[in-house]
Amino acid sequence: MNKSLSILSSITNDLNMLNTNLKKMVGAKHPILYAAAEHLFSAGGKRIRPAIVLLVAQATTSNHNILPEHRRLAEITEIIHTASLVHDDVIDECQTRRGIETVHNTFSTKVAVLAGDFLFAQSSWYLANLNNLEVVKTISKVITDFAEGEVRQGLTNFDSSISIDDYIEKSFYKTASLIAASCKGAAMISNTNKNIQNDFYLYGKHLGLAFQIIDDVLDIIGSHKSLGKPAGSDLKNGNLTAPLIFALEESSKLHNLLNREFQNKDDINKAIKIIKSTKGIQKAKDLAQEHIQASIKALGNIYHGEANNTLQLISHYVINRLN
Known about the structure:
CATH class: Mainly Alpha
CATH superfamily: Farnesyl Diphosphate Synthase
Strand content: under 5%
Cofactor: Mg(2+)
Organism: Halymenia maculata
Helix content: over 70%
Keywords: Chloroplast, Isoprene biosynthesis, Magnesium, Metal-binding, Plastid, Transferase
Number of helices: 17
Pfam family, one: polyprenyl_synt
Number of domains: 1
GO biological process, one term: isoprenoid biosynthetic process
Shape: globular
């Protein structure tokens, strides 16, 4: 996240405060649950989602003031995201996340599932305590979307008939929904009008989709370090992502590997090699770029000042993760 640290300089103190608060907020009575939650938050992570919430707060308040409710929404956003990662890691059987062992590896699958549930429950409780019904409606929908995305992904594993539209829809549920809803929620807390709220929703939606597409490109070409999880893990689990879907249009051999679910020892490496030899990665990058442009367009010319510039820089940062 080094590249992005400089662009987030205006909210560095706010992010430090967020890290301190996260550990306090997950203070479970049961030592194992507390240890599991603390294990996650100690691992760091990019904190890009709460950073976006804080920047939307700055962009939509008269004196660029971040209200206590904005801070709480940023914390809730990170807790929801982290809960989804714990469950994702169980489903995908990931061994490491953010450079450390996953919760189910360190403790057990049962503890990981319970820790994820606990974090979702905590986020709901804090959300209810915002005492803002519209924000509650907007954010609570995200938890439903996560489940919908996981089910869709599970039902289409190794299914070569999946289209790019199906993939975008699933990516919305799994990634973009949270960013879109939390951007809108931050604008709601600032009492902006419905048009501005919807603009920020679109900004978050397109940014989230671009983020997911780039993640999926990095799964093919990136390092373990840039991903926070082992490269090729999406392929191994049969998750059909943009580079793979585009590459399938060009390669019958890839279809064969997919149909046998990469069962042979070298199948994943062969698949990665084939994807790299097609236009799959470039087409995926182009698709991500389209969503980045849409995110910047959604910001429009209505918002000015440093926070708005930083939100645009975050859009560019998402694409630059490939460099």
